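My current task is to audit a protein record that another person submitted. Thanks in advance; the entry in question is below:
***
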Amino acid sequence: MKTLFFLLCSIIWIPCVALAIEPVGTIGQPFPEKHAFLSDGTILRVGWTHLQIVHPVTGAVIDEFAEQSDISEVVLSPSAEHLAILSPGVEPKTTRVTVWDVKLRQQISEWEVPAYLGAGAFSPKGTLFAIGFDDKIHLWNWQTGEWLGTMTGERRPSKQCHSHASGGATCAEHTLVFTPNADYLIVTSARLDVELWNVETRRLEAHFESHVGSWVEGATVSPNGEFLATTGAESGSIYLWSLETQELLWDRESGIGNVSGAVFSPGSQRLYVATETDALYSSGGETWKGWDDQVRVWDVASGQQLDTFGTEFRKLGAFALSPNGKTALLHYRDAIVLWDIEARQQLRVWADFEGSFYPPVLSPDGQTLVSVSPYFIKVWHLASQQLRQLISAEGGTFRMFAISPDGQKLAVGRDPWIQVYNLQTGAIEMQFPYTRGHSDIAFSSTGGWVAARGYGEIFLFDVENPEKSRRAVPADRGISTWFDGLAFSENDAYLAATGDEERQVLLWKREGDTFVFHYAWDVPELWTNGWERYAFGKVDGSTVLAVPGREHLQIWRLGQQHPELIATLLDADSPAHFSPDGRYLFADQNDSLQIWEWQTNTPLVHPPIPRYFAVSQDGSVVLSYHETGQILIWDGRQLLPSGAVAVEPRGKRIVTLGQMKQNQLLQNFPNPFNPETWIPFRLANESPVTVRIYAATGQLIRVLSPGILPSGDYASPAQEVYWDGRNEVGEPVSSGVYLYTLHAGDFSATRKMLIRK
């Protein structure tokens, strides 16, 4: 067997150990989904793949347990002493429920439920576990996994129920919560009322009415069992009820955003309400700019607001209060903050989550990574894998950005400016007036200019002389289009851009300290979405340009009068990067890195690196996304051949050892997204294809049916399944986690995606 293995390795002329490499480092921590305080003062962190116990003072991870998939949901008991992991399966629809003892880190039970689940509740007494699906409330013994029956009662109609294509319907519950004495179960769903179920009789006993809006989203019960607080969907309204009489005691608008969490104080005298907003919000047909990521404190008895607190971070998605009510966890988009309630100050900040909105950028020298969300810039040092700078947008929003060739500066759009930051100090060194909104920005290869998109023109800002600005405008004709895909060649000899309305590549040539329009050429299948970047390279003394198409990369040699198409790489996509000698091209192929000896159209045999997105100038550092939200660092030198290279006839693909053609569902892009996304996949055989979108609760949101498709890779925007973020009746869905399931013949697979608004 060893002889055969060695023979196979010799045939393809590369070391077989190279078929499996490991990342050499990781940027960021897994982005958590929720937190809870434990009775011993530690913090339970629910991540995408594991559960962690975190020390509140040092921030160190004490323990990690209960491995889960990235599409699982975690339900915590009231004291967080136990938890249930709900893991959706494939057709027929099932969910595996595993219950864990958090203190002992031991699994207690496991069972299956014949439905997709996203909500459940532990009783504070005994071993009852409640789950809602198929418009019924079911009870299990969480200790043994025994099904105990179904609660009965005439539920009111739900206009938000969606029928499955296969028949039947799912009215998913949004929240289930037991009262502290375990006598009642509170249920909110796609209805305008809240249901009160008697646990002993197992019957629907009463309703809480008077909600305004689409449906009731969340519910929480006071520790003394006297009050119920509920929130509306996509609303800043908070309602307080008497549990005994179901009477509405008061309702308030708690800020201008959506309520993202409501928690009673341990003594039930106060109600903490967290809100989450975008930079833009509307009311009464008018729109303003502003932020309201705050926690408001309400007096339960009177309904009076007592206090408001928050931090510099934005998008407050969740709020957790310690058992003694003295500290809280504020879960933002870019950070987790441990807050001292009495001192009104932050005790600790966890900001080491990559969490960017735009694709991160690697400096050409491979030493610095910059990730940008609308609210913060994060600067990472690759050698130490540490976060070095955290730069706030200070009430504004960051947009597109570019890093300088020496990795020392960052140009970023922040209306009404393009600002240039020193990445060592975090200080703004200069700024240029610019009000073009979501702009495409590029640093020149010498670092002397910053280019930004314009309509019919490109803005050029002189970094050495900030008071100067020039515009590169086509000399022979006016072109009425936005320019994207901005890129500079070596020594700033050329500037290239896309005319997105005319599907042209335009080229400017530098003459002294200005750029003069050189020529343009049509690329009928040119693809640009504002994220694409052209790649310049040098080969045999000529400048070449890699241009992304819808299903390929084209390599053009830039001549004096016109360009020449010299290579086409099928199934290749941006981001693309030439090796320093120009011989090899790094590019994306079906959501993985592929390296080509591009002049012979030869793909190299090398270990697959899924979700690759960046490579250093010398090819020594390669970066890829991980499903946890982290970024993996790879040694690119292990990917390039040290000797002979496997050669394959032009136009055919190499299949690595053990690789088989099979159906596959890939990660949607972008993710997170707002409001639209594309879902890629692969088909081994011709199949009828359907993609179903589910809420985290299991409620069917949308059915997308592209029809019967031939075998192939559906991993370009023109082929992928497109979702506009709306349900079956055309309404935009709210922020949160959603599941998408691909059905292709007998094949089914499910992944998770996230909408952030």
